Structure formats: structure tokens, C-alpha cells
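dude i think i finally got it to work??
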Amino acid sequence: MKILAVDTSTKHLSLAVTEGDKILSTHNVRPKKDLSLTITFDIEHALRKANLVLHDLDGFAIGLGPGSFTSLRVGLSMMKAFIMVTGKPVVGVSSLDVIAMNITAHKPTQICVINDARRNLLYSAIYEKKDTGLTRRSEYLLKPVDEILVLLKDEVVFVGDGIQLYKDHIITKAQEWNNRFTPRFETDKHWLPYAKELARLGYQRFLRGESDKVDTLSPLYLYPEDCQVHRKETK
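look at this
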């Protein structure tokens, strides 16, 4: 199954074209211009590297965030246009799940993804990863760091750009709480939601016979009040 995977939840655009478990091409770039002006060309480039055209694809996978409001809308709008043209199925995947996939686990490993949500809050989720796959153990969270840390125990691998803000605080809290949890921190090369991992998660869902309805597919917004459009009442 040939899949185009696209994640636009961060300042970096990540694209991948895969066939089954094989990666045909990847493209990771920080756009210098408005994403809406460049994403089509970047996708064409990724498909060209894979020696494919749009209608050769069997399905699509899109990262749903949480993340940048505008970039998520651009990525999802582009993907919906492709689906309308090709009639091929799509799956949406949280970008937090994708980041957790960056951690290689040869034994059961607890993973806590922490991404900066501003306002002294973090986007987060807690996972267990084994060599057989990834399982999410929490809801998708929007909380201050201490409200996330209290959910943890034993050894935890932290990953995500929240590390650069809260690493020292996390170490201090672990000590204050008598090592209730033991933190390990992944390097920054693992902090992004890479489309090659998104494609892998999407492929697993397709194998299970799953897909998402295009008309209900929407970004994962954990700040719902910020994303509502309010109309002025007319008399």
C-alpha cells in the first residue's frame, strides 16, 4: 500500500511516501515562505523522489496536532483536496503519537511526550512502547508540567520540545518526590513528528481496516475556546 504522509503541526513540514513498511522518500524542511505557498511543490518533490504521481497512491495519513492552528489547517485542507481528486482513504493521527514513535524500544518503555503549548502549559500524552508497538496510556493532555509529572512513576523517557523549557524542573521534581519517577531525556533530533513514523502508524490502521471520514476529520485542538468563530448578533 502506497501512502503519502504529511505533518504540518510544527514549524517544520514533514513529508514521507511509503509502500508498506518501505520508505520511498522523505522530505523535512522548515519553509522560508508561507506554507500555503510552498506545500504543493514540496509534495510534488516527495512524490517525484518516489517515482510516483498522486493517482499512484493508495491512501493518505495526516498529522492532526495539537500544534500550530494555521499550519494544521493548511495541511488538512491540502489533504482533503487530494482525497476529493483521488477518492483514496485517509487516516488522521495525533502528532504526539508520531513523536512517541521516535523512541526505539527493545523492552517495555514508558514515554511522556511534552510539547510547548505556551501559557505555561504543555501538550502531552503518556505511552508504553514495546517492540510489538505503541500504546497510549493517557488522554491527550493540556496541563501545567507538575500536573503531568504527578501521573508518572518508574523510568520515563521524555521527548518533545518542552524539554528545553522544563528539563531542570523535571529533574528537581523527581528528586523532591523521592525519585517516584526517573527521567531520561531524548535529544532534539527526536522532538519532531516525522512523517515516516506517521506513515507507519497510518499503515497499521489501514491494515486493521480503519479509515476516517473526510467531512469529520479535523485537527486536534486542545484549546477549543481559541478555535471558535463567534459571529456578531444582528438586530
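Residues 169 and 190 are 20 Å apart (CA to CA).
im so relieved honestly
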